[in-house]
Specification:
The chain is mainly α and about 400 residues long. It has a single domain (about 50-400), classed as Serine Threonine Protein Phosphatase 5, Tetratricopeptide repeat. Helices cover about 60% and strands about 0% of the residues. The protein has a two-stranded antiparallel ribbon with strand order 1-2. A hairpin with a 7-residue loop joins strand 1 (about 145-150) and strand 2 (about 155-160). Helix 9 packs antiparallel against helix 10. The radius of gyration is 27 Å and the shape is elongated.
Length: about 400
Amino acid sequence: MNSFASCPGPTRKPKHEGYWAGPEGKEAGSSIPLASTHRLRESQLNESTLTSPTRSLRRQKAIMSRPPPPMLSVPEKRTAAAELFRDRHFFGAAAFSDIRDARAAVAVPNPQAQPPASRRALLLRYHRLLFSARDDPCAFDEALSFTWNDAFRPHLKHAAASLRFEKAALVFNIGAAASRIAAAHSRATEEGVRAACWEFQRAAGAFRAVGQMMEEEAATTVDMSSQASAMLERLMLGQAQECCFERALAGGKSPAVCSKVARQAALYYEEAYAALVAPPLQNHFERSWVSQVQLKAALFNAEACYRHAIDLREKTEIGEEIARLQVGINAIVDAKRTARGAPGPLYDYVSRLEQDMNKSLEIAKEENYRIYLFRIPVATSLVPLPAASLVRFAPLNEILEAKSENGTQSP
């Protein structure tokens, strides 16, 4: 991440005891007695502390009324038709015709055109049927070859005579379907946010499992590499943590709690972004994908700083409040300068947060200049903000037992 420049602030002190230094650093008028200064500071401080929670509450209500930032979903891998030979390779299958029909249902030209819940049900059914077939660690002969295209570069494909590869590709698509279901949920309600959060955790577990399943495969497409699997896992966890942040705001959690949740979301997004800009993933994903992840990392770093700054204001630690606000604003400015192609709604959301933080920064600077005169710490002297993860990847057995939207087990 970019290093942030320090935000120097005024460090002037009263010229001499008993007199108050005015906003320009000069004695105010004919000098104000110290007792009057104390009364002035007390009244201004009371006004500041009374209006700060009100501003925070208004900001929270404004966020809840805005459309939430968009989420990323993973496209499915496409597969070519495969000839299944019962006598040679599926002699142990109890329902060979069911396996053949299930794979034909999976191998459609445009899987994205199907509803994600229906698509997941087909994938889960085929995956379960494969367990009745022989799962020999030795490769089959070339007569039985499964071909799958890269999810992000469909012109790239990989063929392997391996049921392990076939199952890993299925799990990848199950994770992709979960991400589509999650992204489609309306996060305007508590129920929608909760459902999206859980589906993103399912997707994270699926992509993690793909990386583990492909460890013994000699070659594959980039989307199923260990680096891509780890990146997708962190991305899905970041989006799940983002849902937790939205729930924390809606639930009226304290600024300190919201800051920790936001900081962890930023960490997940930072890890995903770092993988996206390094080989072998570099230049493999669309620029809009990379920009959205980069902007999300900046957004939640800024949110963490903003929430922490609110907490600092309540403790009258105005100097660090100013520094934290400046760090968060710098994070947004730096990301907006280089993140090209991210969705417009995300840019709008980030820009509104930047405006709110600038307003808070102006107020804090003015109050510090006129009242507190605290020293402003440089950004490099600030300790990292604490983080709290509220999400985890779902175990594979939970993913494979996913239920359809009507609550029934997938056939």
